[in-house]
C-alpha cells in the first residue's frame, strides 16, 4: 500500500480515537506511557457509549481488565466487565440454539450455513466471548424456505412477515426473513442470498461445496469457507458504511488467517466487490494496524479505492446507526451516493435496470387484479411520476 496515503481522522471523536488505539495495542498501560495525550479530556460516558455502538467492548475488556485505574477509571473497567459477562451468556445461549436448529434442519435434509453469530466468533477470535451477536444468521437454498419456516414455527418461532412484493421481486430485492422466539428471546434470520439484489453472488451450491465445519459444537455446524467469508464480510460491512468497528475487527482477524488470496481476489472481481474488498482492507490496515501482503496489494493501491476508504470515515465521525429508522435525511442521502460509488460498472447497470421492475408501491398506487400485474411494467414510469408529484404537492 502506498505510504503516502493516510486516512484523515481529524474529525472523529477523541473517545473513538482512543478506542482505536486501544484495539491496536496490546497494553493500555504501555499506550498511556507512550502517548499520554490520548487519554486527556476523555468523556468516559461517551467512551462507553461508543464501545457499545461499535460492538467492540468484549475485545476491549479482554485488553483492559488488568489495567490500573490511573490509566482507565475503575468504573469504566467495571462497566465493560458487566457487558462482557452479559455478552458471554448471550453467546452461549445462541450457541446452544444454533446447534439445536442445525440438528432439526439436518433431520429435514435442509442444508444450512451459518453466516455470523457464535461460529464466526470462534472462527475469527478463537473465543465466542470476544465478539457480539444479537441473533443467528443462516443461509439456505431458496427452494427450502417453506420447509425451513415450518420447522421454525413448529419450534415456537414467529415469522415477521414484513416483506411486500409484486411479481415475486422479493426473491432478489430482499435476502432474508426474520423469525423470533418470544420465550427464548432469540431472533433468527433465514437468508436465501448473502446480500440484497440485484447484484450477482455465488450460488448456494458453490458456497456449500466450499464450506467449513466449525470446531465449536459436537454436532456438525457449517459456515462459509474463508474466501467466501471474506467476500461476505466486505460486502456486508461496506453496505453498512463500516459504521461499526466490529465489522473491521472481523476483517482484521480474518486476514491474519491462511486465505487463498488468489481465489479471493477472483471472487471479488467476478461478483463486483473488488472496491469493497479494497476499502475494507485499507480501513483495517490504517485503523487497526494490519499490514496487507503483496498478494492483495493490487486491491488497495488505486486512488479510487483510497477515496472510498476516506469516505467511510464519515460514518465514524458521526456515530451513524443505519439500523434504526428514521435515518436522518442528510445521512441517508450520503449513504445512497456512497453505496452507488462502491458498485462495479456491472452492478450499477443492474441496479439502474432494477428500477424498471415494478415495486410494491406501484400496486399500492394503482391496485390491479393479479392477472393484470404484468401491466405494472409499462405503467411504472407513470406511477412513479404520480407519486413524486403528489409528494411534492403535499409538502
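^ Assign residues to that structure.
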Amino acid at each position: 500500500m502506498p505510504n503516502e496515503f493516510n486516512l484523515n481522522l481529524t474529525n472523529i471523536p477523541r473517545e473513538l480515537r482512543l478506542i482505536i488505539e486501544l484495539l491496536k495495542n496490546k497494553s493500555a498501560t504501555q499506550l498511556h506511557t507512550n502517548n499520554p495525550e490520548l487519554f486527556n479530556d476523555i468523556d468516559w460516558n461517551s467512551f462507553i457509549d461508543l464501545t457499545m455502538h461499535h460492538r467492540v467492548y468484549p475485545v476491549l475488556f479482554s485488553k483492559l481488565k488488568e489495567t490500573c485505574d490511573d490509566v482507565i477509571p475503575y468504573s469504566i473497567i467495571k462497566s465493560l466487565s458487566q457487558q462482557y459477562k452479559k455478552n458471554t451468556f448471550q453467546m452461549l445461549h445462541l450457541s446452544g440454539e444454533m446447534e439445536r436448529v442445525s440438528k432439526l434442519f439436518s433431520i429435514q435434509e435442509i442444508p444450512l450455513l451459518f453466516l455470523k453469530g457464535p461460529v464466526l466468533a470462534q472462527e475469527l477470535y478463537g473465543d465466542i466471548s470476544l465478539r457480539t451477536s444479537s441473533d443467528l444468521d443462516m443461509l439456505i437454498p431458496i427452494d427450502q424456505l417453506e420447509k425451513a419456516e415450518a420447522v421454525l414455527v413448529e419450534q415456537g418461532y414467529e415469522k415477521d412477515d414484513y416483506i411486500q412484493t409484486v411479481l415475486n421481486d422479493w426473491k432478489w430485492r430482499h435476502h432474508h426473513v426474520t423469525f423470533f422466539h418470544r420465550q427464548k428471546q432469540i431472533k433468527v434470520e433465514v437468508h436465501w442470498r448473502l446480500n440484497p439484489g440485484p447484484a450477482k453472488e455465488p450460488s448456494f451450491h458453490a458456497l456449500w461445496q466450499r464450506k467449513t465445519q466449525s470446531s465449536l459444537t459436537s454436532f456438525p455446524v457449517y459456515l462459509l469457507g474463508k474466501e467466501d467469508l471474506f467476500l461476505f464480510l466486505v460486502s456486508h460491512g461496506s453496505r453498512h458504511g463500516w459504521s461499526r468497528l466490529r465489522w473491521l475487527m472481523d476483517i482484521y482477524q480474518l486476514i491474519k488467517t491462511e486465505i487463498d488470496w488468489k481465489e479471493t481476489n477472483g471472487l471479488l472481481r467476478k461478483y463486483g466487490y473488488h472496491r469493497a474488498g479494497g476499502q475494507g482492507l485499507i480501513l483495517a490496515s490504517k485503523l487497526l494496524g494490519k499490514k496487507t501482503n503483496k498478494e492483495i496489494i493490487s486491491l488497495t493501491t488505486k486512488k479510487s479505492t483510497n477515496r472510498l476508504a476516506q469516505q467511510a470515515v464519515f460514518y465514524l465521525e458521526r456515530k451513524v446507526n443505519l439500523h434504526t429508522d428514521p435515518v436522518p435525511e442528510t445521512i441517508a442521502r450520503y449513504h445512497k451516493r456512497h453505496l452507488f460509488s462502491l458498485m462495479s460498472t456491472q452492478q450499477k447497470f443492474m441496479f439502474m435496470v432494477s428500477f424498471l421492475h415494478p415495486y410494491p408501491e406501484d400496486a399500492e398506487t394503482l391496485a390491479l387484479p393479479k392477472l393484470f400485474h404484468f401491466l405494472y411494467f409499462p405503467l411504472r414510469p407513470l406511477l412513479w411520476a404520480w407519486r413524486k408529484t403528489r409528494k411534492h404537492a403535499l409538502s
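The chain has a mean pLDDT of 92.
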